[in-house]
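for the writeup, i need someone to sanity check this before i put it in the appendix. the sequnce is what the collaborator sent (i think, or maybe the updated version? ugh). structure was predicted straight from it, no edits. if anything looks off just tell me and ill rerun, i have time this weekend
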Amino acid sequence: MQPYELFIGLRYTRAKRRNHFISFISLISMLGMGLGVMALIVVLSVMNGFQKEIRARMLGASPHLEVVADGGQIQDWQAVLDKVVKHPQVQAAAPYVAGQGMLSLGKSVQGVLVRGIDPLRETAITELSGKMKSGALSDLHGNEFGIVLGSDLARTLGVRLKDKLMLIAPQGQITPAGMLPRLKQFRVTGIFEIGMAPYDNSLALIHIGDAQKLFQLGDAVTGISAKLREIDAAPRVAQDLQGQLPAELYANDWTHQNSNYFRAVQMEKKMMFIILSLIVAVAAFNIVSTLVMAVTDKQADIAILRTLGASPASIMKIFIVQGVVIGVIGTLLGSISGILLALNLDVVVPFIEHLFGMQFLAKDVYYITELPSELRLPEVLMVTGISFLISLLATLYPSYRASKIQPAEALRYE
C-alpha cells in the first residue's frame, strides 16, 4: 500500500466542509461496532461465570466420580475402594449408601434422597462440612440415628436442630397384616445450605452404618465416591478405572451425571453469541452505507486521482482504509469497555441495583443472587477478530464500486 492511499483514506474519515453527515454516520458505525463487541464480551464473561459458579456448587455437594454396580450393591467394596484410591488422579475416596425415602413430621411429608456417608471421609470428598448452617457433619455417629437436612427441606418440614422426625424407607417388612414400610425415628443433628434447590430441597444425610441398617444392605454399599486432583480429568479417569473394575461395576464422572445441564448451557452460550453478533452485523451495514455515501460524495476526487495516475486498486485501497479505520476504532473501544465492565461487574451491578432500587437476581427465584463474571482471553480475541473481519468484509463492495468510477463520467457535470 502506497503512503498516499493511507493518508487519503485516513483523511476521508474526518469531517471536512460538506461531508459532516457522512462523518456523523461514521461515528454511529464506530459506536455500534463498539456496543456489539462490548455486549459480546460481557455476556460471554457472565455466562462463563454462571457456569463456573454452578459447577462449583454442584461439585461442592457431589463427588467428582462415582463407582456403582448394576445391581445397586457392592459387596466387596473395600477392594474396589483400594483400586480407586491407587489411581494417581484420585485425591480421596469413600463408600456411600444412597436410597430414596420419605420424611414425616406431623402432617408434613416430604420425599428425599437419603445418602449414607462416613463423616470423616466425606469431608475430604465434598464441601458439605463447610456449608453447615447449624450443627456439624461430624455429629453423625453410627447407631445414634442422626440426620442432616438441607435448609429448604428443614424449612418445609418445620424442623430445627435436635428435633425428631420419622424416616420411611421403601424396603418393606413382611408381617401377618401384609407388607409394611420400614420406619425409623431420626434426630436432626445439622442443617446445611448449598445454594442449589436440588440439594437444599431433597437431600438428607445419615451415617453410613445407619443407612445400611435402614435399607437392609448388611455390609454392602451402594457405591464409591471420589475426589480428583483435576476435575477436568474426570472423563479420562473414569475410562481408566473402567478397565480395572469388574464387569458389573462402572465408573460415572460428574460430566456424565450433569451432561444435560452443561450441554444446555453450552448451547445457550452459542445461541447468545450468534444473536449478539447481529449487533456487530448491523454496525457493519452502517459501515457499508457510510462508504457508499462517501463514494458518491467523492466521485470528483476519485476522478481527479484517476487522471493523476491512481489505479483502480489504489482507489479501492483508499476506501478500504476508511472502512477498516471505522471498524478498528469501534472494535478497540468495544473491547476495552467490555473488558473493563466484565472485570468490574461486581461493582457496577450493585450500583445499578441501588440506583434504581431493584434486584436483578432475586434469591427466592435464582440459584445465584450476584452476577458472576469470568473473562477469558481466547474469547476476547475471538470476538475482536470476528468483528475486525466483519468490518473488513463490509468495505469490499463500496471500495470495488469506487474503483469502477470512470473519470470522464464523474467530471462531466463538474
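The longest helix spans residues 20-61. The chain is about 55% helix and 20% strand.
thx in advance!!
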